[in-house]
Design brief:
This protein is mostly helical. It has 14 helices and no strands.
Length: about 425
Amino acid sequence: MENFSLILAIVVVTALAFDFTNGFHDTANAMATTISTGALKPKVAVAMSAALNLVGAFLSVEVANTISKGLVDESGIRPEVIFAALVGAILWNLLTWLVGLPSSSSHALMGGLIGATIASAGTGAVHGDVLVTKVLIPAIAAPLVAGIAAMLATRLSYSLGKKADGKSAAKGFRAGQIASAGLVSLAHGTNDAQKTMGIITLALVAGGAVAPDSDPPTWVILSAGLAIALGTYLGGWRIIRTMGKGLTDLQPQQGFAAQTSAATVILASSHLGFSLSTTHSVSGSVMGAGIGRKGGVVRWSTATRMFVAWGLTLPAAALVGALAESVCDLGDWGTAVVAVFLIASSAAIWKISRREVVDASNVNDTDEPAGVVTTAIAAVTPPPAGTVPDDLTATIPAPAAATTEPAVPPAAAV
């Protein structure tokens, strides 16, 4: 570790700051549906998620190796390039958190890394085959697979629970939802904490602190796990609100199906070394669960904004990363300017967020408009048998009271 320079220390600290934002940005992935259905109280949910994120960080290093060894050419990367990549990723995370959009922290990190690498060493330093097979294809496939699985699981859950007592079934599904939420948290730590491990390991290789092709050192695994756990505990309440109530209204059966499907997809991808977006997986499963319930709907206005954010994540983070690298390439003073810009921008975003505070006390309050599609579907969906809407009024007037006055015959025609 004698080669651990000042710039390398700055990169490691910045990487852990990104991991922290990843934690509070992606808490919704594990706990939004659990909180929205009332299975767990908000603060208990985020504490449980934080602990399991830390445990998950120690389960595998396959995703970390994908980032540190596969996505870009290690030999052409300097620590300043990693720093610039992290600037792009952190700013995108904070901006999407401010507006409550569940975008992908993973894609923000990889976009920043790709942009900074291209600005520093050209397009040849990016391994296109790895980008396509382990990043882009999973980005498209994950929400589709998780969504279809959640839709089928939701229908199966309602089908099996038809003859069960309503309160008992809901209680059972809430218990199952707690277990599945824990599984998602574990999977999130296994997948997302590793991305920071990979980026720190890549910086250590670039700075000459560890040998090329090395696995993440133990202190890197521990620090990355702690950073993401701390961010998770603080809770990204804005995104939890969007994921739990903004996309669809979930019942316990749907929450259980959504989380189980997402956890299965994430864990399988982590085992294969795919740098999967847990946000894409969980969002897809939530929408699938919304469609899977008879009469359930998805708020496509919110979903559309989320899809747009997904599409912009890679290029936007890449652009910021490339610009940051261009400034860092001017010398130490350029790196200092980028660092000051990052700190000032982060502080400004935080100050703006205080204008409308979202926390554990109001996370389940939402006035998200239903949207045209949802309104139309709701208008033609009949109410359950045996229920009378509160606003139902008679449209046929009651017959007039009988009168003793004889009817006046019509005048005779002349």
